[in-house]
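INFO worker-7 received task bundle
INFO bundle size: 2
INFO processing item 0
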Amino acid sequence: KGKWSFIGTEKLKNSEFLEKAGTTAEGMLMTGEWDPEISYTKTSDTFLEFYRMIRGAESIPTEAEALGFEAYMLLLHAIESVGEDGKTPDAITGSDIQKAILNTKDFNGVTGVLSVNPDGDFQRDRTVWMVKNGTFINTKKVKKTAIAYKTIQPL
């Protein structure tokens, strides 16, 4: 009999899954974009610090909260970069912001370093977890995995 692994997303990274799957989960791999136990960048550390100041010291942000904050920061970065090109705030267009986002290189976000490749896909480090002895362990970060979002449209 061959050995195989089940691969899923971070949505399975919870105690209910481990209880139901039991020993069959052993060796399972999951990928995701956010783990509050990992220091991805200074931005992620700052995000976690402020989140816990507001929500409480033991609070754990969700991936959606981390990605939402990161999207907000990326948008601000894009607007600022258009302004650095000499445009006044009232002259900045949706197309200007789109171009700035598509030209993003090595943006230090909450979930890691983010770039956009020539095809318009976001690239970021991904986190990989494995089930080992009935618990989730962080095995590694996979560098600059392309994520085909292709949903950036002019405003």
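INFO item 0 finished
INFO processing item 1
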Amino acid sequence: TMYLEVESIIHAKLDDQLCFEVYRAASHFNKLYTHVLAPFQLTYSQYLVLLVLWEQDGVMTKQIGERLNLGIGTLNPIISKLIERGWIEKTVSPIDKRATVISLTAFGKQQQSHVEQAIVAQIEKCGYLVEEGNALREQLHQLNSFFECFYEDE
């Protein structure tokens, strides 16, 4: 029955727990990106904000928070640091004077290829195949969609 299958997942040893493998992988990603981003004086969280802006420049702070699932209290210090380091700039929204728009500076745009090249070089050095990564990303996307259904009513 389904209950017995769930029971076996819950009572599995640590090394057999899916949650532990996801946690370990997240920890390894964090270390990898911390190492690769250090020469750019970027944290992983700052890199994620830049990814949003490299995909679509000129985004409201609120939209960045929604995209990254970060609260404004967590996001504001990240944005402030990126402004301080010359990667992005903040302007008042012409549509809503209470909102701010975050945009890449010329430096932020110019650094995109350098950051991407550094990440690709590190991943290639590790020897992880693109196909494996794409399949895993799709599975994790499905897993995250599954978990998001728990929070739809909140």
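INFO item 1 finished
INFO post-check item 1: The chain has a mean pLDDT of 88.
INFO post-check item 1: Residues 32 and 123 are 9 Å apart (CA to CA).
INFO worker-7 idle
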